[in-house]
Prior knowledge:
By secondary structure, this protein is an alpha+beta fold. 33% of the residues lie in helices and 28% in strands. Glycyl-adenosine-5'-phosphate binds next to strand 10, strand 13, strand 16 and helix 9.
Amino acid sequence: xxxxxxxxxxxxxxxxxxxxxxxxxxxxxxxxxxxxxxxxxxxxxxxxxxxxxxxxxxxxxxxxxxxxxxxxxxxxxxxxxxxxxxxxxxxxxxxxxxxxxxxxxxxxxxxxxxxxxxxxxxxxxxxxxxxxxxxxxxxxxxxxxxxxxxxxxxxxxxxxxxxxxxxxxxxxxxxxxxxxxxxxxxxxxxxxxxxxxxxxxxxxxxxxxxxxxxxxxxxxxxxxxxxxxxxxxxxxxxxxxxxxxxxxxxxxxxxxxxxxxxxxxxxxxxxxxxxxxxxxxxxxxxxxxxxxxxxxxxxxxxxxxxxxxxxxxxxxxxxxxxxxxxxxxxxxxxxxxxxxxxxxxxxxxxxxxxxxxxxxxxxxxxxxxxxxxxxxxxxxxxxxxxxxxxxxxxxxxxxxxxxxxxxxxxxxxxxxxxxxxxxxxxxxxxxxxxxxxxxxxxx
Length: 443
Ligand code: GAP
């Protein structure tokens, strides 16, 4: 059994080599906790985000979308409690100068890096990233990059409710960047300082909130197992024992990453905390309360939240998909060599179809086919190297279908489609190819 550091080293190397994810500003030595997504990575990230958006917003009548600013009025973060309380305890080693989060240390008196018993007393460190708006850099002009995407949802609740003519219960979703000055970014992209969240806040009456909590728990579990195709034995629910004073229930969906079970998503009952806080700080009660005609009552909506990190999902998908095998490579004209393959579900694969002409002489009809395919699927064209090498290249980025255009194709108007996982080949008429692929990809 391979150790987890070796496995992660392979994932990190593959991600850089094939243009999934690599350090930001690498030529200057990188910047800790910031990551860039290359051509294949951004295709994966967008595919997952679009899949989430369709599942959470487009396919539902009772969830609306939002794309808010990253910088909001600083009072938003006063009201949410982030400026006062969004802090981790940190301690520094006075010998090696490394900094650690106290809650991540086995023994807060001993440096995990150099072993010295010379740690500073723990102190609070606020995670909000600060900037200044306007030409004067003073406290009056201080502003913060959002630490979560949900706060603007609460602030915009009433405007969206009126514009969309929604009645409770309904939800508002948004995806976008969040920023946290994490003390100790680690485990590749798992804990970053700039990351993308995908959040949905569902507004309902208190009496119905537990029913909705159970509903969203089930929906989010299904997203991972049925839509992303993650097997249930790599996922688990972690119920929170300690709840915030306003919350009735909270759970994390955890995935078995190579470095252990870790949170990918939270489903939280947030009570009326957010709406009542914004009412108190903004003094705009009418924007935070809801008049329920059926109940003939006005109240603060209770919120059930689903909140996940897109970077954590992409990392999960890459780790989950990664495989090495040696079997059956010979039949593709290669020596028996190890192949690295990513078994992504076809609907989120960064490249879904590769078009490969068998010979450079077939470039013209093959590029014609590629142009047609590219309108409906994420597609790549590759003409360089032996067909076996080209299959390997596509396996490494998880392309589920390789379409080979050969000399027979000129006569029989058919192509060979090679399946990434089974490594089987099937002759498919060009006229039926798009539908054939659609059936397999949407399955
Ligand atoms: N609005 C609630 C909220 O933000 P959270 O548990 O702090 O709750 C929600 O964050 C999700 O955002 C996490 O489950 C995780 O997937 C992602 N996330 C949080 N901090 C992150 C970080 N430093 N790097 C990457 N993803 C992070």
